[in-house]
Design a protein that fits this description.
The chain has 22 helices and nine strands. The protein is mainly alpha-helical. Among the domains are: 215 residues, Alpha Horseshoe (Serine Threonine Protein Phosphatase 5, Tetratricopeptide repeat); 122 residues, no CATH class. Helix 14 links the parallel strand 6 and strand 7. Helix 16 runs antiparallel to helix 19. This is RagB/SusD family nutrient uptake outer membrane protein.
Length: 546
């Protein structure tokens, strides 16, 4: 049976972050307040569990993918993602193309800003009342470590997204009318303080899957050190996670994405979703977001095995061309190119096509007219899908990411998935070590860690072809390798921002975003409702460019 951490919803009163209104209004029949809720060990435990729950607002969700993966060099708009740059009912296109990205973008406001601050405020409540709640001393230290880790986790999302942000270390118990944007360095100083405490306080292991452990907290600390240019520290922590515990890379990249093997030796931390969908308050939707419209093709209909096609996101041609699939197994493990006929009504299949035969084939290579004519199935080649400059030609039909497929859903109409959303895994630690070592001028060592990842990814018998020399390792190569390894895993926007490559690579490789992206887009706009709510507007200004 799949175990999962019991996330709960707590009071909107306790969860509120700044002066903004909460969209989620929760009924509080007992009239409870933080002062009464957190007076017992059970209340404290419930509070900590509640802090974890805010990850579910963006990991495994369309909003999170838009905020963390899109608007980069590797993804662009598919047909059902809205086709204008305005907000309205479609907040995602501005996050994809930067056209019309304004201070009123609802996903920037409700998913990144509000939910992170709600989580931080709940963590602050736990930390305030924990010492007097009767929790045994050993457990108190562990819960303080978890709460401080999670506070740092959410502040990292905020400071990377918005730059200077209000730093609050006490719970907000009344309506605030003023706010100050704390400098980035000071926010990071607090993040490091919290994480350094966490890595000494959090247990090495957990029986409550989904709860943070010491190795996972060290993995995040490695990422934060890398973000701040502290490369030796980043390298040290990444290598400690790689060698100091029982975590191991899985034998094959494809096995990472088996729906039956989600709890494995490579996953450091995930947002775990229950197989009882009612417990999830919104389950993982990643499996729907990257699928093309296969169900309208001859010989095809929507079914559980092939997935629910929301047709939201499609790969850039640049992403597809990063892979040499003759050597690198990650292309075929990550992407679905062939669709097998599943239409049982023979009159809806092309003549001579049987159930199980190839019905649709998508390829990043050009196909000759003679080849098309020799096949019964429908072909979408590179020229069907993309123009010469990489702009999509067909936003309905494309090579589809399949990493998040869930063939265990109850029906073909079910959009929710119990698949976990990985947020820290061992494979990324190798790439963090490589990047940190490269930044330190240690290209031989950087190549070693890149080659560990590439050897695991090799097609059997092609390991030698996958290995690279120290001279091959550049920052752009590492970013390319991160794309091959981590595409869709909600890290790309932060990767490009960290390396100062967001604008350059979006302009070069994403024709939809290229005309609009500007240097100021390395930060998101502060929600206008936050600026409107404060009285000290001269001290709480919008990010430049918005």
């Amino acid at each position: 049976m799949k175990t999962y951490i019991k996330y709960i919803s707590l009071l909107a009163l306790i969860a509120t972050g700044l002066s903004c209104k909460q969209d989620l209004q929760e009924y509080n029949p007992a009239g409870s307040t933080a002062q009464t809720l957190f007076t017992t060990p059970e209340g404290i435990e419930a509070g900590v569990n509640g802090v974890y729950s805010y990850n579910r607002y963006f990991y495994g969700k369309e909003e999170g993918q838009a905020l963390m993966e899109m608007g980069t060099d590797i993804w662009t708009n598919a047909a059902n993602n809205g086709n204008t740059g305005t907000n309205g009912l479609f907040p995602q296109p501005p996050l994809m193309t930067y056209q019309g990205l304004t201070t009123d973008n609802v996903w920037v406001k409700t998913r990144m800003w509000q939910q992170c601050y709600a989580a931080i405020n709940l963590a602050n409540n736990v930390l305030k009342y924990l010492p007097s709640a009767g929790v045994p001393a050993a457990r108190q230290k562990e819960l303080e470590g978890e709460s401080r880790f999670l506070r740092a986790w959410y502040y990292w999302h905020l400071v990377e997204s918005f730059g200077p942000v209000p730093l609050q270390l006490e719970p907000t118990e009344t309506i605030l009318t003023t706010a100050t944007r704390t400098p980035v360095d000071a926010v990071y100083e607090q993040i490091f303080q919290d994480l350094q405490f966490a890595v000494t306080a959090i247990p090495l292991t957990t029986t409550d899957y989904g709860r943070i452990t010491r190795p996972a907290s060290e993995a995040f600390l490695a990422k934060v050190y890398l973000t701040r240019g502290k490369n030796q520290e980043a390298s040290n922590y990444a290598k400690k996670v790689i060698t100091g515990y029982s975590y191991k890379l899985l034998p094959t990249y494809a096995s990472l994405w088996s729906i039956t093997g989600q709890q494995n030796t490579e996953v450091l931390w995930s947002v775990n979703y229950s197989t009882n969908l009612a417990f999830n308050a919104g389950s993982n939707l990643n499996h729907t977001l990257f699928l093309m419209e296969y169900n309208t093709q001859p010989g095809m209909k929507r079914d559980v095995a092939n997935g629910f096609p929301n047709v939201r996101y499609m790969p850039t041609l640049f992403l597809l061309n990063l892979f040499n699939e003759q050597n690198d197994s990650r292309y075929n493990a990550s992407f679905k190119s062939a669709w097998k006929a599943n239409e049982t009504d023979a009159t809806k299949r092309p003549a001579g096509m049987n159930v199980g035969d190839t019905a649709v084939f998508t390829t990043k290579y050009p196909v000759t007219a003679a080849f098309r004519q020799s096949k019964k199935y429908k072909i979408y080649d590179v020229n069907d899908m993309y123009k010469a400059d990489g702009t999509p030609n067909d936003r309905f039909h494309y090579v589809s990411l399949q990493k998040f497929d869930d063939p265990t859903r109850a029906t073909d109409t079910e959009t929710q998935s119990a698949r976990d959303a990985y947020i820290l895994r061992l494979g990324e630690m190798y790439l963090i070590a490589a990047e940190a070592l490269f930044n330190l001028g240690k290209k031989d060592s950087a190549a070693y860690y890149v080659n560990e990842i590439r050897t695991r990814a090799a097609v059997p018998g092609r390991q030698a072809n996958m290995r690279v020399a120290a001279a091959d390792v550049t920052l752009d190569f590492i970013l390319d390798e991160r794309a091959r390894e981590l595409a869709g895993e909600q890290v790309r926007w932060f990767d490009l921002k960290r390396t100062n490559k967001l604008v350059e690579r979006a302009k070069k490789y994403n024709p939809d975003a290229a005309p609009n992206i500007q240097p100021f887009h390395v930060l998101r706009p502060i929600p206008q409702s936050e600026i409107d709510a404060v009285t000290n507007k001269n001290d709480f200004k919008q990010n430049a460019g918005y």
